[in-house]
From TrEMBL:
Top-level taxonomic group: Bacteria
Keywords: DNA damage, DNA repair, Hydrolase
Organism name: Amycolatopsis vancoresmycina DSM 44592
GO BP terms, alphabetized: base-excision repair, AP site formation
Keyword DNA repair carried by entry: yes
One term of GO molecular function: uracil DNA N-glycosylase activity
SMART domains linked: UDG, UreE_C
One Pfam family here: UDG
Signal sequence range: none
Gene3D superfamilies listed in its UniProt record: Uracil-DNA glycosylase-like domain
Descriptive protein name: TDG/mug DNA glycosylase family protein
Residue intervals of the Uracil-DNA glycosylase-like domain: 19-177
Length: 186
């Protein structure tokens, strides 16, 4: 498949799913809201050009260089993974109902209990608030844990979330990186 999906490929990707990048014992499992059509068409997380996940991951110190979506499985070597609150692809996250987000939160809890990452990092405060029922949650570490897994909420790295600058995203990702390093060294 070409690196840029066609209009037909994007249309065919609606309601598709893409596999998680996951393994037992990760340091951090990053969790998007749900994959977009671009990601669904390519089968890669955070694939749309302009999504700032990959640059923020690198700028925050998680990767030695800026990875591309096509290198997503290389994250496992760094003890990092990717999943989503809701598995199905949509054109926009606002196509998801609150019930769908809450159900996705239940599925995510089961996944976290099975794979037991040190940290679950949800990228999207609104999705976290709805999926887990914490309407006053804030960006940063949460009091909420899933088993032994600590939870951190990061800003949504979508290019549509202009409120967060690349430097601000890098700083938030960097704080999580420092916390995950601290936990690993204990």
């Amino acid at each position: 498949m070409s690196t840029r999906p066609t209009k037909d490929q994007l249309a065919a990707a609606h309601n598709a799913t893409i596999p998680d990048v996951i393994a037992p014992g990760l340091d951090v499992l990053f969790c998007g809201i749900n994959p977009g059509l671009y990601s669904g068409a390519l089968g890669q997380h955070f694939a749309r050009p302009g999504n700032r996940f990959w640059p923020a991951l690198h700028a925050g110190g998680f990767t030695p260089r800026r990875y591309t979506p096509g290198e997503q499985y290389e994250l496992l070597d760094l003890k990092l993974g990717i999943t989503n609150v809701v598995a199905r692809t949509t054109a926009r996250a606002d196509e998801l109902s609150d019930d769908e987000l809450r159900e996705g939160g239940k599925v995510l809890v089961a996944k976290v209990l099975e794979y037991r990452p040190r940290w679950l990092a949800v990228v999207g405060i609104g999705a976290y608030r709805t999926a887990f029922g914490f309407p006053k949650a804030h960006v940063g570490p949460q009091d909420h844990r899933i088993g032994d897994t600590r939870v951190w909420v990061l800003p949504n790295p979508s290019g549509l979330n202009a409120h967060w600058t690349p430097a601000g995203l890098a700083a938030e990702f960097g704080q999580l990186r420092a916390a995950s390093d601290h936990c690993r060294n204990r």
